[in-house]
Specification:
The complex is a heterodimer of chains A (131) and B (334).
Chain A: E1 13-16, E2 22-29, E3 37-38, E4 42-49, E5 52-53, E6 59-62, E7 69-70, H1 71-74, E8 81-82, E9 88-93, E10 101-111, E11 120-130
Antiparallel strand pairs in A: 1-2, 2-9, 3-8, 4-5, 4-10, 6-7, 6-9, 10-11
Chain B: E1 3-9, H1 14-18, H2 24-34, E2 37-40, H3 42-45, H4 54-67, E3 71-76, H5 90-107, E4 111-114, H6 123-132, E5 136-141, H7 150-162, E6 167-172, H8 182-191, H9 195-206, H10 211-217, H11 223-228, H12 232-240, E7 259-266, H13 280-289, E8 293-300, H14 314-332
Parallel strand pairs in B: 1-2, 1-8, 2-3, 3-4, 4-5, 5-6, 6-7, 7-8
Helix pairs in contact in B: 5-6, 13-14
Classes of the chains: A mainly beta (131), B alpha/beta (334).
């Protein structure tokens, strides 16, 4: 249904902090829905690496690549929208980032919509090679 | 006398937009080319809605004056689930609707489509704003949430009680299916839904009824069907099947006075130039007989059932649907 939009191809990569150290990795994704929504309606974001789910607290989410929110913070963020057609960034804090080699990385985004009784999700696993 | 006109919902072109293949201007151009007017979804293609930037509004004004596509309807949503821990109050939801009315007016729309299950209690408090800004509010009658849904009923009660010309309904043609959309079947088949479940659902349609009515009559999905469902996906398929209704056109008879707009749902335009599930030739004859004055807006939903890795063929599908509508409308000789 919307799984075609989650986890943009070739976007999973390690990220450097201001000191130039790898402090995590990021994934970009379009919204798994057909319109933009306030960030507070993003019900959940989950990331798995090689079958192991990363801790919820290590995920930060940004609708514009500039301002990042933890998933707990995001619950009250109503003035930023995740716009339709705009890639959001899911950042996972992890010292050293993903190790060199091939990984199965899975991203799941879950969204709340008023006229659909349960939150619905989009999910996709991609093979990611870190060089 | 009827006056049936054609528009295209930008819903149909969402994949082109999301993937950056078409921007707003390209979509305006496309509409101009095929001679259709516009149904918009402000949350989809106008950033920051319902409070877009001055820059976005300036660009909108430019496109409107350059392409002269008529703004027929804006589709909006009240985010009653804005917060995880509570539902918006009536006041909050009403205020949200008022902002949408103001935006619709600013963009030049005189009609708002409210999504099914919009809280009916916010309509009367917002009505003075609808009048002031000259914007009609119409609830969508959509498969799975149509006339028998309590929230749809409650909305129609408000229309009948107030008798306001600023209230009405938008009917989605998906309530007039005659068989399960083949593209949806094939999509779920590709994900692994078992053939017995597919056949069971197809057989319900073959009897001239739909899964929602059939299950309701039996007090839920029957044991024989549940026994066929081996996976979560099988169950999901039977639940989604509720969204395709087989109603007689006469279900609209009593609602014609406040029928404001129609979503011309398209799951699949076939090589023969017809919609696979919905008999548009009969539908248009019915609307003509009833003297419908308004638009049928192509809403292509086959995008949802495009197989993984395949390209969404929305431009071709929208064109085909518009050609079909034009043919049937022309044949009326009005």
């Amino acid at each position: 249904m919307f799984d075609n939009y989650v986890f943009s191809e070739n976007t999973c990569k390690n990220v450097l902090n201001k000191k130039g150290e790898v402090n995590g990795f990021e994934i970009k994704t379009l919204i798994t829905y057909y319109r933009g929504i306030p960030l507070s309606m993003v019900h959940d974001v989950k990331v798995e690496v090689d079958g192991v789910e990363v801790p919820r607290e290590s995920i930060k989410f940004s609708p514009n690549g500039e301002d990042y929110f933890t998933l707990d913070e995001m619950e009250t963020v109503t003035t930023y929208k995740w716009e339709y057609g705009q890639e959001a960034t899911a950042f996972v804090e992890k010292e050293g980032g993903l190790s060199k080699g091939e990984h199965d990385v899975k991203l799941t985004t879950v969204i709340r919509v008023a006229y659909i009784p349960v939150p619905f999700e989009g999910t996709r696993t991609r093979k990611v090679v870190i060089e | 006398m009827s006056n049936i006109k054609r528009s295209v919902s930008f819903y149909s072109l969402q994949d082109q937009y999301a993937r950056g293949k078409m921007n707003l201007e390209d979509i305006f151009k496309f509409l101009k080319e095929i001679g259709a007017e516009m149904e918009f979804i402000s949350d989809q293609m106008m950033k920051g809605s319902p409070h877009p930037s001055e820059e976005s509004l300036k660009e909108w004004d430019r496109l409107m004056s350059e392409y002269k596509v008529k703004p027929v309807c804006n589709d909006i949503f009240i985010n009653t689930c804005l917060y995880k821990n509570r539902t918006l109050t009536t006041k909050e939801s009403t205020d949200a609707l008022i902002e949408e009315i103001k935006l619709a007016n600013r963009l030049g729309f005189k009609l708002i489509r409210l999504v099914s299950k919009t809280p009916p209690e916010i309509i009367e408090p917002a009505l003075p704003y609808a009048e002031k800004y000259d914007v009609t509010l119409a609830i969508e009658i959509h498969g799975g949430m149509s006339f028998d849904h309590p929230m749809t009923k409650a909305f129609i009660d408000v229309i009948q009680k107030t008798k306001s010309p600023y209230l009405g309904i938008v009917v989605d043609a998906g309530i007039f299916c005659r068989r399960h959309p083949r593209v949806a079947t094939n999509y779920f088949r590709s994900l692994g839904v078992n053939e017995d479940v597919i056949k069971y659902i197809d057989d319900i349609f073959a009897q001239g009824t739909d899964p929602k009515q059939y299950f309701t009559k039996l007090g839920g999905r029957p044991k024989e069907l549940l026994d066929l469902c081996k996976t979560e996906l099988d169950h999901m398929y039977t639940i989604f099947a509720d969204g395709y209704e087989v109603s007689d056109f006469s279900i609209l008879d009593e609602h014609m006075p406040y029928l404001k707009h129609i979503h011309g749902k398209v799951y699949e335009m076939t090589d023969e130039g017809v919609e696979y599930s919905i008999p548009y030739d009969e539908f248009i004859k019915y609307l003509d007989k009833k003297g419908y004055v308004g638009y049928i807006s192509t809403e292509y939903e086959g995008n949802r059932f495009t197989l993984d890795g395949a390209e969404v063929k929305e431009l071709e599908q929208v064109k085909k649907h518009q050609e079909m509508l034009k043919k049937y409308i022309d044949e009326l000789g009005r």
